[in-house]
Design brief:
By secondary structure, the protein is mainly alpha-helical. The protein is 70% helix and 9% strand. The longest helix is centred in the first third of the chain and has 65 residues.
């Protein structure tokens, strides 16, 4: 069957239909290609963000662990928590403990405060308030 033998109306209709089918196929192809490309990019972006967040959280935890180990393994801190003499506790060792706690807070920006408790319920608190209070 030759197209030239069809009526002009049918020829125009056939050409239009063929054109619509070709453009629809092209649109579908480009739509699905773009859809899969954006899905892949969104997945990669999401995975990168999750990995960066995980690394940041791990870094924060490592900083906190390092700060905790420095404080816990410090001989002066241990003596501060077990000494019974209030003078020695508050005057001789207290200033060193306060300085160490301040340093630990400044060393790790994620730590807003440090509390050290002893067996008798006494505590040393170092908080990041506006005045930077450290008290016994």
């Amino acid at each position: 069957m030759k197209i030239s033998r069809l009526k002009l109306k049918h020829q125009i209709l056939l050409i239009s239909l063929f054109t619509v089918i070709i453009f629809t196929a092209m649109e579908s192809y480009f739509y699905f290609s773009f859809y899969h490309l954006t899905q892949e990019r969104a997945t990669n972006y999401g995975n990168k963000i999750i990995e960066q967040t995980r690394q940041k959280i791990d870094s924060v935890f490592n900083d906190i662990i390092v700060s905790t180990n420095i404080v816990v393994n410090n001989k002066m801190i241990q003596e501060f928590t077990i000494t019974e003499d209030d003078y020695k506790r508050n005057i001789e060792i207290g200033n060193y403990v306060i300085d160490l706690l301040d340093y630990m807070r400044s060393f790790n920006s994620y730590v807003n405060g440090i509390v050290i408790n002893d067996n008798e319920g006494r505590r040393v608190v170092s908080t990041a308030t506006a005045s930077g209070d450290v008290f016994f």
